[in-house]
């Protein structure tokens, strides 16, 4: 994901991040803020109050036309037919081998109008993959440059956002969205996120993003809202065991192996879709390996790519690993053979040449209080 | 401000010499680059190290960084308080965040270390 600095793209909020003194890094071809006041402080603010994230690097693809629904049923893993207008769905674009080309959120704006939010590093790939398969009567358009995306996440998010909009947020349910005015800007408010907390993702025109960002920060100051970077976003999503594309899943890991069988729909109404054969068999009979959550038993932080051993047998590598600021433990994700993946299973992570004890634990590591 | 009472490596460690002892830590620039420090791997007391040899690692939430000793000798003391409070490295890198104390070999520290002004210039170049 590292790219030469000169070629990095910048979001509409780039000058705002610099003003705020953010530390900037390359991610998915973009120059993004990794932290402002400090990763741990930002992480804790999102768990206890709220954090504001620039996620404008994410891609937006419009799929529209009379054939849009049938097309999306064919190229995504979840049942798009279940969506009503104003509803969103976590899904994936499976390849014939059952592994995702990407994980996506599908928004139904109308019976023939859908929006897919895709990972920054996959926009071009997804676009090609969808265009190749799109039938007549269904247009796929890259609209990524038309949107800035701001995520407001944390238990104080509803009260902060409610102060800036007349839409009744208590009626906006999880994975639903609404068109609204927020601080006098036209915004699509989606009750979605990637932190394990309640919160919203706000789609806004790029030239309005900086003002909306400032108005949100001002409105939330008293409630403890802070700007938060990709660093905290990564540790927050890991505590909530949300997969990161390119780390925890990619074109070699099936959705069932990645623990995403719940976004694979075998409903009759959905019909056939790319990768269904493999995914149906694995849902019914199990997969040879699965993604598990672990915590380190002995001292050490497991990180992406570190080798994993079950007994003396190599068993792949850590897909995500970090110190978990809220849990104050060292945690991670890795693939283990399904027969050796039960909660409590002891194994080792090779931390720079030293084998350190770990054990499989129940996930999510963190679940927000209801 | 980079303290004048010690010397620096280009990998952002410092050593402060008092008699035959050299106290070693990382600079303020280094702790800022790392972000929140959450883990340290430090050597056992009594181990001998050479100048510029690796003596441990410091880890923030996001990064792992190796630690190199500016000086050679025998490790006389290790700051074991950092195991419980690694964030001290962020809060006080030139004071309570020290990492090891080395009983210096004769002729240490070597002349290739930077003084405060040279180190400030080095940081200014690296930050560009």
How would you portray this structure in words?
The complex is a heterodimer of chains A (370) and B (128). Chain A is an alpha+beta fold and 370 residues long. Chain A folds into three domains: 5-56 and 147-239, Gyrase A, domain 2, CATH 3.30.1360; 59-145, Aminomethyltransferase beta-barrel domains (Alpha-Beta Plaits), CATH 3.30.70.1400; 288-361, Aminomethyltransferase beta-barrel domains (Elongation Factor Tu (Ef-tu), domain 3), CATH 2.40.30.110. Chain A has eight helices and 20 strands. Chain A has helices at 14-19, 39-48, 68-75, 123-133, 157-162, 206-220, 230-239, 276-285, and strands at 9-10, 23-27, 30-35, 50-54, 59-64, 87-94, 100-110, 113-118, 139-142, 148-153, 177-182, 185-190, 199-204, 225-227, 289-296, 307-310, 313-324, 329-337, 346-351, 354-361. Chain A has a six-stranded mixed β-sheet, with helices on both faces. In chain A, helix 2 packs across helix 7 (230-239). Chain A is globular. The mean pLDDT of chain A is 96. Chain B has helices at residues 28-34, 81-84, 88-91, 116-127, and strands at residues 7-8, 13-18, 21-26, 37-41, 48-49, 54-60, 64-68, 73-78, 100-104. Chain B has a single domain (7-127), classed as RNA polymerase II/Efflux pump adaptor protein, barrel-sandwich hybrid domain (OB fold (Dihydrolipoamide Acetyltransferase, E2P), Beta Barrel), CATH 2.40.50. In chain B, strand 1 (7-8) and strand 2 form a beta hairpin. The model of chain B has no long low-confidence stretch (mean pLDDT 95). With 128 residues, chain B is an alpha+beta fold. Chain B contains four helices and nine strands. The chains are: A alpha+beta (370), B alpha+beta (128). The A-B interface holds A 23, 34-35, 38-40, 231, 235, 299-301, 303, 322-323, 325, 330, 352 and B 35-36, 38-39, 57, 59-62, 64.
């Amino acid at each position: 994901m590292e790219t030469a600095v000169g070629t990095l793209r910048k979001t509409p909020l780039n000058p705002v991040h610099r003003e705020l003194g953010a530390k900037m890094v390359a991610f998915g071809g973009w120059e993004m803020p990794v932290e402002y006041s400090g990763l741990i402080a930002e992480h804790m603010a999102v768990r206890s109050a709220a954090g504001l994230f620039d996620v404008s690097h994410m891609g937006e693809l419009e799929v529209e036309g009379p054939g849009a629904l049938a097309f999306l049923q064919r190229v995504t893993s979840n049942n798009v037919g279940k969506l009503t207008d104003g509803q969103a769905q976590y899904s994936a674009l499976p390849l014939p081998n059952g592994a995702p080309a990407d994980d996506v959120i599908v928004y139904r704006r109308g019976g023939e109008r859908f929006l897919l939010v895709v990972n920054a590093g996959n926009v071009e790939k997804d676009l090609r993959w969808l265009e190749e398969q799109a039938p007549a009567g269904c247009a796929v358009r890259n609209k990524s440059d038309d949107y800035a995306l701001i995520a407001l996440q944390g238990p104080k998010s509803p009260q902060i956002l409610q102060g800036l909009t007349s839409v009744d947020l208590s009626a906006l349910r999880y994975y639903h969205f609404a068109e609204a005015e927020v601080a006098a800007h036209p915004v699509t408010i989606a009750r979605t996120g990637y932190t394990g907390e309640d919160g919203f993702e706000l789609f806004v025109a790029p030239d309005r993003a900086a003002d909306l960002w400032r108005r949100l920060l001002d409105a939330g100051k008293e409630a403890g809202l802070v700007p938060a970077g990709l660093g905290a976003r990564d540790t927050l999503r890991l505590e909530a065991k949300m997969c990161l594309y390119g780390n925890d899943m990619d074109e070699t890991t099936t959705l069932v192996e990645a623990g995403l069988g719940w976004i694979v729909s075998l409903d009759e109404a959905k019909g056939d879709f790319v990768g269904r054969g493999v995914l149906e068999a694995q849902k019914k009979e199990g997969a040879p390996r699965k993604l598990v959550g672990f915590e380190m038993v002995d001292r050490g932080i497991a990180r992406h790519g570190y080798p994993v051993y079950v007994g003396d047998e190599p068993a792949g590598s850590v897909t995500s690993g970090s110190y978990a600021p809220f849990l104050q433990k060292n945690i991670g994700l890795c693939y283990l053979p399904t027969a050796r993946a039960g909660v409590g299973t002891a194994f080792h992570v090779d931390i720079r040449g030293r084998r350190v004890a770990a054990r499989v634990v129940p996930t999510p590591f963190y679940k927000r209080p209801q | 401000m980079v303290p004048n009472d010690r010397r620096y490596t280009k990998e952002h460690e410092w050593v402060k010499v008092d008699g035959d002892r050299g106290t070693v830590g990382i600079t303020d620039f280094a702790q800022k680059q790392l972000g929140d420090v959450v883990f340290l791997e430090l050597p056992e007391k009594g181990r001998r190290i050479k100048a510029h040899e690796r003596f441990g690692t410091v880890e923030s939430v996001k990064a792992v960084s190796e630690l190199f000793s500016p000086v050679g000798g025998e490790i006389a003391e290790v700051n074991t308080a950092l195991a419980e409070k690694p964030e001290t490295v962020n809060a006080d890198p030139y004071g309570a965040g020290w990492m090891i104390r080395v009983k210096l070999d004769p002729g240490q520290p070597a002349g290739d270390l930077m003084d405060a002004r040279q180190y400030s210039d080095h940081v200014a170049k690296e930050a560009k």
